[in-house]
Design brief:
By secondary structure, the chain is of the alpha/beta class. It has a single domain (about 1-185), classed as Rossmann fold (3-Layer(aba) Sandwich). The protein is about 40% helix and about 20% strand. The chain contains six helices and seven strands, in the order βαβααβαβββαβα. The protein has a five-stranded parallel beta sheet, with helices on both faces. Helix 1 runs parallel beside helix 6. The longest helix has 16 residues, at about 170-185. The chain is globular and about 55 Å long. It binds flavin mononucleotide (FMN). Flavin mononucleotide binds near residues 13 and 16.
Length: about 190
């Protein structure tokens, strides 16, 4: 099962449109996790204390771990997040704070290195931006670093469409070209 982590906000989100094209192209069943509909607990001191206690007991049955468990068990991950303020919407950061749990998505080895515990071998990151200043190290680069160094997911794909809010931009053309690119990169027998 693919886990579709949807950090898109707007009903007519262009980012979600591209992610949907990717999911249709991949053609596998997926679970849609709409972050707008989630209310994540605040990661305050009480939350961390409770979480640390449960982790120290190895008790991962508490509902606070449901996002981490879901992420760790997914066969592939698709994250869709618009480019916001040179990064991504804060709800994606809140989600990442929920899933970064030692003993579920990763663990530390005796020499202090993080080792991934996730089943997924592949993660797709779909984004769109209003302008053209979208260095890969921003937003995407952070998620890529987490995937590789924490979750043990080495195969990362970036799908992006930029310049969508530039005055006079051929928005439909840009999106259609990106969809064609998705189908050619990830369609049957093209991987
Ligand atoms: C709160 C907010 C912050 C944004 N920050 C940036 C930005 O830093 N750089 C940029 O190029 N576009 C920025 N944009 C424009 C969006 O990246 C662009 O409109 C994107 O396509 C929105 O995706 P959506 O259609 O999926 O909602 C921002 C938009 C919003 C609403």
């Amino acid at each position: 099962m693919i886990l579709f982590v949807d950090a898109c906000v707007r009903t007519q989100s262009r980012t979600r449109r591209l992610a949907q094209c990717l999911l249709d192209t991949l053609g596998a069943p997926y679970e849609h996790l709409c972050l707008s509909a989630c209310s994540f607990p605040k990661a305050d001191e009480a939350f961390l204390n409770e979480r640390d206690l449960l982790i120290s007991k190895g008790d991962f049955t508490n509902p606070m771990f449901e996002y981490a468990v879901g992420f760790s068990q997914a066969e592939e991950i698709v994250i869709a997040a618009p480019f916001w303020d040179l990064s991504f919407p804060s709800m994606l950061k809140s989600y990442l704070e929920q899933i970064n749990v030692t003993g579920i998505t990763f663990r530390y080895t005796s020499d202090g290195k993080a080792e991934g515990l996730c089943r997924a071998k592949k993660l797709y990151y779909v984004t769109t931006a209003g302008g053209d200043f979208l260095p890969d190290s921003f937003g995407f680069g952070y998620v890529e670093a987490l995937a590789k160094s924490f979750y043990g997911i080495e195969d990362i794909e970036l799908i992006k469409a930029t310049g969508l809010d530039i005055y006079g931009a051929p928005v439909e053309n840009i999106l259609t070209e990106c969809e064609k690119d998705i189908i050619s990169r990830f369609g049957p027998a093209k991987e």
